[in-house]
Design brief:
It is a multi-pass membrane protein. About 65% of the residues lie in helices and about 0% in strands. It is an all-alpha fold. A two-stranded antiparallel ribbon has the order 1-2.
Length: about 500
């Protein structure tokens, strides 16, 4: 856990980092494919052929993925998720300085704002089953952008209490979560049947775009707070989600017509209820398979270990006197580090077995996370390292490691989803991961209260950090729940293994 990671985030991005988690599962495969009617099979087959022919070559590649209009739209939505970090420091300082909340209260509000990420299957179901104005993807991207603009406009104008702030942050989180589900489903459609390497390239494009967005906004996130105040930053941030609405027109999507292709059923109508029932049954049939359930359980436990992020933010600002401008520079470093983490995974780790990645990164991350004790106790200064340089170096190393360790979670989840319910199942898996991260944050808030760490008292902060870091090792005995995969098989063999593997 780094100084940058300790900044409470208005959204949960797989963020045991976004967190995140990120957000963040199952490499052995799909299990038995769920039955589809003949028309759906023909439709999805034609769709797959269309995708392949559409993306043959346009000459421009990023992370090994060709930038077709669809892929560019996906990358831009992830870019917006990253650039929304412009308001992250503003939110943290607003809760601390304007609303005068303590670390535990801040952690609770951050956890509350992450609730939209726990019901992502609902958005996936709506997107898959209820086309809006004839489209399953494009229309929802437009609406998500408008909702995000509204939430940050409220933060810039009317919000004046912790309850209204929590509501507005929740609204912004809902906007990002819904758009995330939509673009994830598009990624899953492309990743189905591909090898781990190809799927890894797709996820690298997504998370590389998000990291690049973070780099763009990082430095200004602190300097703008110093120069103009948090309200101004919220106003500027309100313009960014509109990019999502604009790039939605690039999504190449066949207009949905007729009940056989998922006509827009009135909510509560018999068609909608029947469609809902079928989707729930299909989702349950997929989730209850051992090769889906067991790895998902591990990911939940891996994410659910307690965190001391909010306490560290208060310590670095109230005790060490880090300014918003300096924390913006730290965030710039961590954004670059996040991009390096994506590059590390894409270049060296996407063909490494999952168990090895989780084992090595967890043990290494736990050991390096203990370096925060040096900052809290002041031992870094006795070693001749200033607080500022120590914080930057610590954040750089831990962010690279955290991002590289989270990428396999996304790749596994993407390769698992059956045709026809990409958004729903992928969202379910990621919601489980996000739920673990939220639980870890709430446990951390409780421990912060138990150890008596407040905005003015940090006597037991070192103990809290040690306990949170050691807890990260607890899920390692359960590594056997992950599949024993062979990532180097080609896509056809990989798909066959996925169909049969337990």
């Amino acid at each position: 856990m780094s100084v940058a990671a300790s900044t409470p985030s208005p959204t949960l991005r797989h963020d045991k980092s976004e967190k995140q988690f990120l957000d963040d599962e199952i490499n052995a495969g799909k299990g038995d494919m769920l039955p589809l009617n003949v028309e759906e099979e023909i439709s999805f087959s034609n769709k797959a052929v269309t995708h392949k022919s559409r993306y043959l070559s346009n000459g421009v590649k990023c992370f090994g993925v060709e930038l077709s209009p669809d892929n560019f739209a996906v990358a831009m939505v992830y870019f917006v998720q990253g650039v929304l970090g412009l308001a992250r420091l503003a939110v943290s300082f607003y809760l601390k300085d304007d609303l005068h909340l303590d670390p535990a209260e801040t952690a609770v509000i951050s956890g509350f704002s992450a609730l939209p990420w726990l019901i992502k299957p609902l958005y996936g179901f709506i997107s898959d089953s209820v086309p809006l104005f004839g489209y399953r993807r494009r229309s929802y991207l437009v609406l998500s952008g408008l909702l995000g603009a509204l939430s940050w406009t409220l933060m810039a104008t009317f919000v004046d209490s912790k309850y209204s702030a929590a509501f507005s942050i929740l609204l912004g989180s809902l906007s990002v979560a819904f758009s995330d589900v939509v673009v994830d489903s598009m990624v899953v459609e492309r990743a189905r049947g591909e090898s781990q390497s190809v799927s890894g390239s797709l996820q690298s494009l997504c998370w590389g775009s998000s990291a690049f967005g973070g780099i763009v906004s990082s430095y200004f996130s602190g300097s703008l707070v110093d120069a103009y105040g948090v309200r101004f930053v919220f106003g500027v941030t309100a313009l960014l989600p509109l990019i999502t609405s604009v790039v939605a027109v690039l999504v190449k999507e066949q207009r949905v017509l007729g009940p056989a292709r998922g006509q827009l059923f009135p909510l509560g109508g018999p068609g909608f209820i029947e469609s809902s029932k079928q989707n729930i049954i299909q989702l349950w049939d997929a989730v209850k398979q051992p090769n889906v359930f067991l790895p998902t359980l591990f990911i939940f436990l891996w994410q659910a270990t307690p965190q001391s992020d909010s306490a560290m933010f208060f310590f670095t600002t109230n005790k060490l006197g880090f300014t918003p401008e300096f924390l913006g520079r730290v965030k710039l470093v961590t954004s670059v580090a996040s991009l390096l983490g994506v590059g590390l995974y894409n270049g060296f780790l996407k063909k490494v077995a999952l168990r090895k990645i989780f084992l090595v990164t967890t043990i290494t991350g736990t050991a390096l996370g203990m370096t925060q004790v040096l900052l809290v106790t002041g031992l870094n200064r006795k070693l001749g390292i200033s607080d500022e340089w120590f914080a930057i170096g610590d954040s750089l190393i831990l962010t690279v490691l955290g991002q590289a360790s989270f990428m396999p979670v996304l790749v596994l989840a993407a390769r698992l989803c059956p045709e026809g319910m990409e958004a729903t199942l992928f969202a379910t898996l990621m919601s489980v991961s996000n739920g673990g991260s939220v639980l870890g944050g709430l446990i951390g808030a409780g421990l912060t209260q138990v150890f008596g760490v407040t905005k003015d008292s940090f006597d037991n902060l070192a103990t809290l950090i040690i306990l949170c870091n050691l807890s990260s090792l607890l899920p390692l005995p359960l590594l056997g729940l992950l599949p024993q995969d062979n990532p180097d098989v080609d896509s056809n063999v990989s798909e066959d293994i996925e169909m049969k593997s337990n």
